[in-house]
C-alpha cells in the first residue's frame, strides 16, 4: 500500500543554507539555490547533467559533476529533476557521457530578448 500524498506543504523539496561557507558553490543557478541535493543522489547513475570523467589516485573512474547546476535550480525544479531520474535509475557504467549537454534559450518573456536568459537542458537529439 502506497502512502497517500495529501500535504500541500512543499517545504520538504528544498532549502538554502545561507550560513554555508561554500555558498554559492555553483554559478548560474536559476531560482532559489537548493541545497537539499548538495551531494547529488545521481552520482552513481546515468544522468543528463554535465560531468567529466577522471581517474582518482587509486585508479577508480569517477564523475566530476562540479559544472552541474540541475540539482540546485530552485526548490520545485530540483526536486522534480531528481525524482524523475530516480524513478528508473540506470547505474553509471564509468564511461564519459555519450549525450552531450548544452544550453538552450528559454522562450523570451514579453519585452525580453532571447539572450537574456538560458535554460540548462540535455541535448536529446543525440543517441
TrEMBL record:
Alphabetical list of InterPro entries matching this protein: Zf-like
Basic residues composition-biased segments: 99-110
Compositional bias segments (type: Basic and acidic residues): 111-127
A Pfam family per the record: zf-like
Annotated ranges, domain Cysteine-rich small: 15-74
Disordered: annotated span: 96-127
Entry protein name: Cysteine-rich small domain-containing protein
UniProt source species: Roseospira navarrensis
Lineage: Bacteria, Pseudomonadati, Pseudomonadota, Alphaproteobacteria, Rhodospirillales
Amino acid at each position: 500500500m502506497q502512502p497517500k500524498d495529501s500535504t500541500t506543504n512543499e517545504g520538504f523539496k528544498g532549502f538554502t543554507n545561507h550560513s554555508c561557507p561554500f555558498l554559492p558553490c555553483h554559478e548560474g543557478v536559476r531560482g532559489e539555490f537548493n541545497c537539499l541535493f548538495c551531494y547529488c543522489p545521481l552520482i552513481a547513475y546515468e544522468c543528463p547533467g554535465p560531468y567529466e570523467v577522471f581517474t582518482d589516485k587509486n585508479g577508480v573512474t569517477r564523475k566530476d559533476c562540479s559544472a552541474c547546476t540541475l540539482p540546485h535550480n530552485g526548490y520545485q525544479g530540483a526536486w522534480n529533476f531528481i525524482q524523475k531520474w530516480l524513478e528508473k535509475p540506470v547505474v553509471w557504467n564509468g564511461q564519459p557521457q555519450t549525450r552531450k549537454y548544452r544550453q538552450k534559450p528559454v522562450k523570451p518573456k514579453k519585452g525580453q530578448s532571447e539572450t537574456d536568459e538560458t535554460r540548462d537542458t540535455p541535448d536529446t537529439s543525440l543517441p
